[in-house]
Structures are given as structure tokens and as C-alpha cells.
């Protein structure tokens, strides 16, 4: 599961949605893999306003990536800064979680990721 | 300037919806001058030949677009009309290599007859060489015959047109995505042609994010990825995503070399979605389970009193075990449609589109009504008819919040807590009772 997708996901439990602790989900014992994907600046520009930057900063630091700037770069800044562009491309689109857990910071529920596919189905008592 | 779109004579109700969507996508001003469901020739007004080429280049239901050089009900009329309206164009192609083709809809012409028709246009005065392959200019004589003309003893077409070929469509990719040649499919995989049309109608394009909440084997994400979108999908049934060994959803993206456009796939239930409520998708496309071939289920137990506490076995939480399968209960199809609309209103960006397929009985008494949402405006309804039932492709546009008319809140459907799949799903009930008074 790509880090971009991780940025779109929160805890599936309805009671957790209102709590800020449920987002982002925290990776636990995660194995990361890296794919090669053709650079696509247009996609990055489109994605950027939809990414929750603070959550991305948290995820990047939890996974041991070099720290991101505290505020999201604007499209103009990215057009000038090739390094930042390729760093974001690698982080959002090329890096994915292949095995491990994603933990909700609010209820503590652990979602398993197996072969890159995360399972968000809930047991009956959490529905 | 007038142009002629040559459509295919299949999925008629989808044709204009697709072309209009492509006009929106390309930012082209399109005015339809004449269109009939029973004819493959559609006349439109566009600003330029370049716009015409862009309009049909990724269409699935159009074959080609032509610059109109003349129309008539007989060949004499046509010749006069060509002299009247396109004489100024003739000198432009005087020296070009060229060829003529004859396209007879619902009729046929022998090669001798074709030759005679073509020679009728000698007055255009082309002096360039005739090349059957790789000609610089291609002219097409299009005829429309009455249905079953030969049996009725009709010897002349109803209308004839002359056009200069401008550009072709993307129709040949249907063969590439043919389900018979696809690595991984399941019982409910969507036909390649219809999946590609759906992607066009939903405006899939490079740089956009698309999502299918009932992904199955990934027919829609593959189609959206073909047009350059980054495609995401989820399904409540993890088996359909994982597949067996190397034949899985991702294998289809590998087969078509679309892995750069593969977003992600995950296992989730739309009624308990893990996606955060934010406007992040440009398009949502899906074919929700109708409860006939695929059961329509959501998370939860049939018995509302059961399972309120986690189960522990030998001191271990049962639901944390690897082999644990969460219980699921049947759900109403109409309730699911409402959930899809609510989800789309929350997650689509402004002017983003939602397309979904829904079945309905052909009998008017048993028809299922198209659901509505104040934030979503219906842009098109296309129908694929079968014998006793049809399925419709319904497309909505997420209108900006400023345009949403504040109406009294939508009539809330009573959350059915039925246990029986038939009680929850009128279409399923009708289907299995042969659409005999199931609703009365």
C-alpha cells in the first residue's frame, strides 16, 4: 500500500472518525518496498492539495524518512525544486507498505497489511 | 463548420453521453445538429477540424469524424450540394494523393456500383495520385438505407453524404482489453467496451484520481488507467483482490503495462469505509452488486443482539487471529445506492463525476427509480437492455457547494434491518420471480 493511500485512510470504526487521534494510522512492524514509477509532475500537482501534509510529515518521520518541511510546497515552488519533486514522487507513489500493521491512535485497533493489501474489515463489536 | 461523426450502431443510448463527456474533457464547444438513435451518422457543429479530431480521438463508440462536404437525399442532390457548399475546399487538395471509400449503412454496394458512385465525383477535379494505402486525403461517401431495404424492394438510399476524413477513434483498444484475453477475471467482470465507455463518461484522464468501491477483478480501474488516471479500488471480498498466486488484480495492470497508473487496492466495506471524509477523487465508478450474481453484504451480524463484545479464546482476541473472518449481513440495494451517493458527495472534487450501474425491470410497474442527492446533478442516463430487465449507467456531477440548492433534507430511507436478501432488494426478488408482480 502506497504512502499516498495511507494519507487518505483513517480508522474504519465510525466512533473514531471524530477523533483527531485516529488519523494518520501508525505503521507498526512494517516492511517497506520500493517500486519504480515513471515521474508524473501533473499527478503530483493534482495530489498535493488533497494530501494532508501534517499527516504526511508524521508518517514520513515514523517510517524513518528524512524530515519534510513543516508546510506543503506550492506548485510554483515544486516547479523550481526538482529535488523536492522527486522526493515527493518517491515518498508518495514509489514507497509502499508490503507487510505489517496499521494502528489507530484512538481505539488501538490494528489493521493488517499482507502482500501490499490492507484489510479494513471490522469485527462485529466495532461495526 | 459542420462535421459528421460516424458512430457504431451498438449501445445507442451511450453514444451522445460519451461524446458530450469528451467535449467537456477537451473543453470543446459542441452543438449537435442532428442525431437519431437509429442512425450511425451524427452531425455536429464545432469550431475547427482540430477540435473535431480531439473530440473523437479517445471515443469508444465513434469510429471516425469527417468534415462535411455535402448532403442530399439523392446523389444528384448531393452533387449539387457539394458544388454549393464546398467548392472553396477543392483546390486545397488538388495535388494531394487521395482515396474514396463507400460506407453503406443497412445497404450494400458491389464494387462496380461503388466505382460508379466514386466516379460521379470526378467534378472535384483532383489531380493527385490515387493511393489505396497511405493516401494523404480520404473521402467517404456515406449512405443511409432504410431498414431491410432489399426485402422491401427499395433500390436507393434515404440520404447520402460526402465527407473528408479527419481522424479516427480509440475503438480498437476494445480488442486489447477483451476479457477473453485478460489474465484475471471474475464472474462479474465488466465487459471491456462498456468499462472503457464508463471511464470516458466519468472523464478519466492523466493526473486524476479514480476510485471503485466494488472493485472485484478491477475492470473499471483498468479502463480508467488506460486513459491515464491513477486508479484505486476496494472490495469487501478480499479474495477477489488477492486472487490466486500471481493471478490477481494487480496482474491485469501488469499485463497491460499500466502499473504506473495503479493507485492501490484494499479490503474494505463502503458502509464502514476507512477513507477519510475529504474531497480527494476526480471520479468514482462502480458496478455495485445487484444481489443476483453477487450477494450484497456489509459488515455486521444478521442478529443485532449478537457480537457486541469481542470474543476471547484461550486468552487471545478471536478477531486478531490471522484466519478470522468478520461476519457479514445482507444489505438493501437501494440503501447501498444512497450510501454511494453520500460517499460521492463527500469525496468528489468540484465537477468530479460519479458513474454507477444499476439494474431495473423493463416493466414500468417494477422500475427502480434513479436516486438523487442535492450535491449531485445527473449528467446522463444510459440503458443497456436485456430481455426482462435492463441495466443503466447513471452519471452525476458533483456541483460546487455554492450551487447546491438548500432543500429540506433528503427523505431518509428507513434503515431496513431485514434478514432476508429478497426482502431487502426488490430487484433481486423480481429477478428470481421472473418479474411477475413482485412489486404489486
TrEMBL record, chain A:
The keyword DNA repair does not apply. Residues 1-15 form the signal peptide. GO terms for cellular component: cytoplasm; nucleus. Gene3D superfamilies: 2.20.25.10. Keywords: Cytoplasm, Nucleus, Signal. InterPro entries: Trm112 (IPR039127), Trm112-like (IPR005651). Pfam families: Trm112p. GO terms for molecular function: protein heterodimerization activity. One of its GO terms (biological process) is rRNA (guanine-N7)-methylation. It is found in: Cytoplasm; Nucleus. Its main location: cytoplasm. PANTHER family: MULTIFUNCTIONAL METHYLTRANSFERASE SUBUNIT TRM112-LIKE PROTEIN, UPF0315 PROTEIN-RELATED. Belongs to the TRM112 family. This is Multifunctional methyltransferase subunit trm112.
TrEMBL record, chain B:
The keyword Hydrolase does not apply. GO terms for molecular function: tRNA (guanine(10)-N2)-methyltransferase activity; tRNA binding. GO terms for cellular component: cytoplasm; tRNA methyltransferase complex. Keywords: Cytoplasm, Methyltransferase, RNA-binding, S-adenosyl-L-methionine, Transferase, tRNA processing, tRNA-binding. Its EC number is 2.1.1.214. The keyword Phosphoprotein does not apply. Residues 1-171 form the tRNA (guanine(10)-N(2))-methyltransferase TRMT11 N-terminal domain. PROSITE patterns: N6_MTASE, SAM_MT_TRM11. Belongs to the class I-like SAM-binding methyltransferase superfamily. TRM11 methyltransferase family. This is tRNA (guanine(10)-N(2))-methyltransferase.
Amino acid at each position: 500500500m502506497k504512502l499516498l493511500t495511507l494519507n487518505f485512510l483513517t480508522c474504519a470504526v465510525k466512533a473514531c472518525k471524530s477523533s483527531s487521534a485516529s488519523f494518520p494510522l501508525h505503521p507498526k512492524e512494517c516492511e517497506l518496498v520500493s517500486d519504480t514509477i515513471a515521474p508524473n509532475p501533473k499527478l503530483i500537482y493534482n495530489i498535493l492539495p488533497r494530501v494532508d501534509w501534517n499527516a504526511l510529515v508524521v508518517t514520513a518521520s515514523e517510517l524513518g524518512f528524512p524530515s519534510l518541511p513543516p508546510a506543503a510546497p506550492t506548485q510554483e515552488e515544486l516547479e523550481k525544486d526538482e529535488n523536492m519533486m522527486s522526493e515527493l514522487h518517491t515518498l508518495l507513489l514509489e514507497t509502499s507498505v508490503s507487510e505489517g500493521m496499521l494502528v489507530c491512535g484512538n481505539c488501538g485497533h490494528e489493521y493488517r497489511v499482507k502482500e501490499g493489501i490492507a484489510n479494513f474489515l471490522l469485527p462485529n463489536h466495532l461495526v | 463548420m459542420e462535421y459528421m461523426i460516424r458512430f457504431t450502431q451498438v449501445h445507442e443510448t451511450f453514444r451522445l453521453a460519451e461524446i458530450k463527456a469528451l467535449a467537456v474533457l477537451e473543453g470543446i464547444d459542441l452543438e449537435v445538429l442532428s442525431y437519431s438513435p437509429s442512425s450511425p451518422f451524427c452531425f455536429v457543429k464545432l469550431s475547427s477540424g482540430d477540435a473535431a479530431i480531439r473530440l473523437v480521438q479517445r471515443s469508444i463508440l465513434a469510429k471516425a469524424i469527417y468534415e462535411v462536404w455535402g448532403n442530399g437525399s439523392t446523389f444528384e442532390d448531393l452533387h449539387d450540394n457539394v458544388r454549393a457548399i464546398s467548392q472553396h475546399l477543392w483546390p486545397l487538395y488538388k495535388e494531394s494523393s487521395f482515396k474514396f471509400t463507400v460506407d453503406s449503412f443497412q445497404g450494400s454496394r458491389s464494387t462496380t456500383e461503388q466505382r460508379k458512385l466514386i466516379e460521379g465525383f470526378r467534378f472535384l477535379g483532383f489531380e493527385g495520385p490515387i493511393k489505396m494505402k497511405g493516401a494523404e486525403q480520404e473521402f467517404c461517401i456515406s449512405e443511409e438505407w432504410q431498414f431491410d431495404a432489399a426485402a422491401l424492394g427499395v433500390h436507393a438510399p434515404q440520404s447520402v453524404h460526402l465527407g473528408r476524413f479527419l481522424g479516427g477513434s480509440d475503438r480498437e483498444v476494445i480488442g486489447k482489453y477483451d476479457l477473453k484475453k485478460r489474465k484475471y477475471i471474475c464472474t462479474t467482470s465488466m465487459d471491456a467496451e462498456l468499462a472503457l465507455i464508463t471511464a470516458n463518461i466519468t472523464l478519466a484522464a492523466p493526473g486524476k484520481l479514480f476510485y471503485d468501491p466494488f472493485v472485484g477483478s478491477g475492470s473499471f480501474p483498468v479502463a480508467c488507467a488506460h486513459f491515464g488516471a491513477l486508479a484505486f479500488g476496494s472490495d469487501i471480498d478480499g479474495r477477489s483482490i488477492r486472487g490466486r498466486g500471481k493471478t490477481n488484480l494487480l496482474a491485469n495492470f501488469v499485463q497491460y503495462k499500466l502499473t504506473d497508473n495503479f493507485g492501490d487496492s484494499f479490503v474494505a466495506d463502503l458502509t464502514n469505509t476507512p477513507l477519510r471524509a475529504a474531497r480527494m477523487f476526480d471520479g468514482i465508478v462502480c458496478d455495485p452488486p445487484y444481489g443476483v450474481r453477487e450477494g450484497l453484504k456489509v459488515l455486521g451480524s444478521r442478529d443485532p443482539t449478537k457480537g457486541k463484545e469481542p470474543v476471547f479464546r484461550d486468552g487471545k482476541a478471536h478477531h486478531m487471529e490471522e484466519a478470522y473472518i468478520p461476519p457479514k449481513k445482507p444489505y438493501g440495494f437501494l440503501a447501498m445506492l444512497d450510501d454511494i451517493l453520500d460517499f460521492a458527495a463527500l469525496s468528489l472534487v468540484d465537477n468530479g463525476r460519479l458513474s454507477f450501474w444499476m439494474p431495473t425491470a423493463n416493466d414500468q410497474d417494477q422500475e427502480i427509480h434513479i436516486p438523487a442527492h442535492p450535491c449531485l446533478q445527473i449528467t446522463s442516463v444510459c440503458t443497456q437492455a436485456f430481455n426482462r430487465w435492463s441495466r443503466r449507467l447513471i452519471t452525476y456531477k458533483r456541483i460546487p457547494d455554492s450551487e447546491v440548492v438548500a432543500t429540506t433534507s433528503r427523505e431518509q430511507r428507513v434503515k431496513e434491518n431485514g434478514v432476508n436478501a429478497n426482502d431487502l432488494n426488490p430487484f433481486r426478488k423480481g429477478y428470481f420471480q421472473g418479474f411477475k408482480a413482485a412489486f404489486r
